Amino acid sequence: MYPPVEPIIIRLGPLALRWYGLLIMMGIMLATWTASRYVARRGQDPNTVWDMLMVALIPVMIGARLYYVFIQSGTEARAMYLANPLEILQIWHGGLHIFGGFVFGITALVLFARWKNLPLPIYLDAVGLGLPWARPSGGLATLSTRNSMAHRPPFPGDCALTPNTAFSSMNTCPKAPAFIRCSSMRCCGTSSGSA
Questions:
Q1: Is the confidence at residue 22, as pLDDT, over 90?
Q2: Which residues, 6 or more positions from 58, have their beta carbon under 8 angstroms from its beta carbon?
Q3: Is residue 43 a contact partner of residue 37, using CB atoms and an 8 Å limit?
Q4: What is the pLDDT of residue 146?
Q5: Would you state the pLDDT for residue 167?
Q6: Nearest residue to 3 (alpha-carbon basis) of 96, 141, 135
Q7: How far apart, in whole angstroms, are the C-alpha atoms of residue 134 and residue 179?
Q8: Strand, coil or helix: what is 31?
Q9: What string of DSSP letters covers 75-104?
Q10: Relative to the CA of 157, which of 37, 51, 134, 184 has its CA 20 to 30 Å away?
Q11: Is 87 exposed, middle or buried, given 0-12, 13-18 or 19+ CB atoms closer than 10 A?
């Protein structure tokens, strides 16, 4: 069984709407909605969370990309990015990583809260409640790019990918979506959901 979708939903000339971007944005919207409901219950203006999103979104994307480029991508890819710095801007070649986005996003949130004189603990709690949306949306997004594959033999229901359907550097060993396995194991209460 292969992932049932192609990475691109629709192409309009040089522009392409990709599943990855759509799923990431859905996760961001759900997280922001969750956070805005929380701050409203704490007597704060829920629109402030949406304003905060507009301020934090660019630092989140920059941090997520820089973490991927300089920490996650590996020595060869890092050398390629340093030799061709404009490649860093092409997020569709390579990827993003949640850790960098989290660090830059929290920094932007703290600065925004201080600038607007907001009660920081309430907004940090709100982010903590919204952040769990990142795992499922990011996991499904990486599945749509066939980019999050484990090297273990597939469990029942896993999608097996071969070199013809995924990255050309993969060997002939079947791959399984690490996100689905990890999330399923965590939902079942196991302590080890890592791929």
A1: no
A2: none
A3: no
A4: 59
A5: 41
A6: 141
A7: 12
A8: helix
A9: HHHHHHHHHSGGGGG-TTSS---HHHHHHH
A10: 134
A11: middle
